[in-house]
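User: two proteins, same treatment. go.

Assistant:
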Amino acid sequence: MTSTTPVNAGRATGTPGTIGGVAGAPPAARAAALLERVTGGADSAPAEMTAPFTGLPIATLPQATDADTRAAFAGARRAQPGWAAMPATERQQVLIRLHDLILRHQDEVLDLVQVEAGKSRLDAFDEVAATALVAAYYGKHSARLLAPRRAAGVIPVLTRAGEVRHPKGVVGVISPWNYPLALTAMDVLPALAAGNAVVQKPDNQTALSALWLHELAERAELPADAWQVVLGRGSRIGDAIVEESDYVCFTGSTPTGKHLAGQIARRLTGYSLELGGKNPMVVLPGADVAKAAAGAVAACFSSAGQLCVSVERIYVHESIREAFTQAFVRRTQALRLGATLDYSAGMGSLTSAEQLDTVSAHVADARANGATVLTGGRPRPDLGPLFYEPTILTGVTERARLFAEETFGPVVAVYGYTDVDEAVERANDTPFGLNASVWSGDQRHGWEVATRLKAGTVNVNEGFAATFGSVGVPMGGMKESGVGRRNAAEGLLKYTESQSIAVQRGFRLRPFRGMPPKLWAKGMTASMRALRRLPGR
């Protein structure tokens, strides 16, 4: 096979007076209004952010100082007790109202996400859907998950034991640029549902999307100051976030996550980290080739591959490798690249020049080390400054950076295998363990293989969306892909302190006056043998 170019393509034409100069985008005044929601901004060096589609300015962003950030935490700490005192069922109603507002006003935020991140509109809608699902889940279930829990006491009837949950206090959330709406919701909303206040630092590149959700939350009657947004450079305000937070939630690179974990450990406060990945897809013998190829396109090229759970390695059984590869290449070549604010494009652009440089370098290095590009493999400046073709390679060896390093772009390597045990071993041969995908004609076999993969989420006959959208199950990484989980009960309860309370009545848990300790111990031993047989013990 030879390298080919997607033939269907569309370019954005800039419109003066709009955010980022993208045709059809909201007016620049809307960006200015959203930025008024930012807390602080005394830094004398504001940040100028540009739109990936056009290279034109999105907005000039005020940057917080250390003092600004600490003031935001002080305001959040004053607001938190009143918010926590509200019954959990009433906090739930804020999230239900927010859910309805998100769906009602989605068109505006679809535009914002596309303009800021360079996504296709379908990929932007994935963020809207995830945000609404998170709001609905915690809007329905958080009160139940936070409710006091009864437990078996040491002495039946005489010992009443239970567990209550208290909010941590003020949670610091550091959000990335690649999923600015969804990851804001996944981290901020459960923290609020648990009764915490939040100070969030979204990435400058995609701050408007987070501020849009913040605006809707206040329209849903979230109390003022319970959620505050600061914009700033990590080098200026990172220490303040770590030092002022009662819990830190971070999404980003593994090196930065390790550095933060060291800082936080000195304070003995909690944290959760979602970090890097080099996610594998395993296509088992007997899998439906057409469905697997279509699934691979979505798994690898959604959001131009700039998704922590996207697939970068595919292992295909030799019996179907050629058929799969041909179908995968054909479907990839049919992707339409575009920069328009509608559903006509299948893939958008990269978000930053740094990502374009990384993708280009990884592909060039793989070629230099013997890899073959089956399709793609080049930037597309004719479409926009940061476009890069969806790229499939074979023959990637251990000498290439692409083999083991996270690319975080629309690039995937395809490998063959002959034995399922070999495929599992190769899929697990990475320091990362965030997401994985298994394709099988036998769902039971697919599930069995999934349990053998060392990844926090595994999707059978899907790339990532099945677990990403199933808010009732936890999401997070193993190994160097992170610590802690978001979504489900874990994604809520991590923002709480567990307190155990036991009330003892009548019977003392020490020998009676005058009773020999040895006799007491003998009686307790007999009691423990009997208690073990009781149900629920």
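Protein 2:
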Amino acid sequence: MATPRFYKMSGNIIDILHQEIYQGTLEIMDGQIARIIRESVAETHYLLPGFIDAHVHVESSMLVPSEFARLAVPHGTVATVSDPHEIGNVLGLPGVEYMLENGKKVPFKFFFGAPSCVPATPFETAGAEITPEDIEELFLRPEVKYLAEMMNWPGVLSGDDLVMQKITLAQKFDKQVDGHAPGLRGEAAKAYAAAGMTTDHECFTAEEARDKLAAGMKILIREGSAAKNFEALIELLAEHPDKIMFCSDDKHPDNLVESHINELVKRALAKGHELFHVLQAACVNPVQHYKLEVGLLQEKDPADFIVIDNLEDFNVLRTYIDGKLVAENSQSKIEFTPSEIINNFHAQPKTVEQFAFPAQDAVKIRVIEPYNGQLVTGMLLLDPKIENGNIVSDLAQDVLKMTVVNRYQNTQPAIAFIKNFGLQRGAIASSVGHDSHNIIAVGVDDESLCRAVNLLIAAKGGISAVAEGREEILPLPVAGIMSGEDGYWVAEQYAKLDRTAKELGSTLTSPFMTLSFMALLVIPALKLSDKGLFDGQHFAFVEVTSNSREGK
């Protein structure tokens, strides 16, 4: 159905900029708010600006941008600030361009960043590099609004030449620079901010966030599928309403079907936070910080707004973008459109023998310790379980074998051990493995690991679960990290695999999302890349085995 050139919309208008609620009518002409008339109206619903995800990797939804938009608009989301570094690590500049062009297929406002750290580190194999020349080319495109998360904070603090070239380019083009510095505090945080970092979404304590706020940075409160910092940080909203934004960072498709930024709005209001503070974080601050072409319910603004039922339940009834109705009564009006498949996947099938780990003279093994709902991990020194001269998974200690398999070259799998996954049978695997997106898997035995990995190699990307003759896979053929299929179908298939992982024993809230971050070397303490076990605190490789007889 075509959008009328001119129409009116009446209700209780929430003017966040002027902190006022009044009855009135919007006159909308050609997708723009031509006039706002203050008048008594019979309508009881409320009109307000749409929500913005201030930092998200669309690729982590396993959906191409056009399908991400389909699932997001029923929740009142009208725009995202998107870092395409996931596909950048796989395909470089052509991958970023794919995201920009795919997003234009639908009536949704995608604003992208130029990835700053591709590859993320020199300690892993990525599929591509994004150079300063590539970044300059991206900055010439109007939809590219910022230099995406600068994860190489040691390079910022040491004045690394390549890092500084990228920051200087952002300043030349008057672009914001996103930070990414988990745990950075005090004088180091001040130095990081002074180098040009303007935001951080990696704080996991309020004290860390206050250090960064004091240094002049804005804080993004993140609540994704794996990393959940809302409870730790929401108290900052009352103190700094002009410096807080909401984001998901990484959101799996089943979770996106359920909710998006609207959930954070409801939770903040339920905690007693002032309405205009909450909406400033959800709607206004991202527009002003990144200079986004998103309407804020003012005359001459684009008609980007939502209709909610009341201020208690805050249910989104309708979503409008540029005056076009894109969602109504929890149903997306955006139609599915097929997407092109692009990829970079060259791994060959593995053998069971390649996943064996000889014990040699090991007394202890270094074990990755993930925490539910966090990206940071611990490092444990534990006794190995040895069978037939090999170190194997130890279900009694919940210590399982883990592998990262290079998907760009045909090399030997890297092996390590991990705790807290809880699997009692089989294995799970994913080619979504931040940030280089090699195959990552965890399992109770080598046969299961090998089967789970080989399923993904045959499909050239996806997530899989195997156990005792049972094999399940969700193919992700777009860069090995996204599906081009209907987003609601992808969400159903992902939810099915998530249930399977939990049936196999996983106790994690989001086992596949947690697994995908176990190769993210820039977040301490211990992670695994295709090149080996990595100590993120000292930025150096370490051996899996240790001759130390000390405990943790």
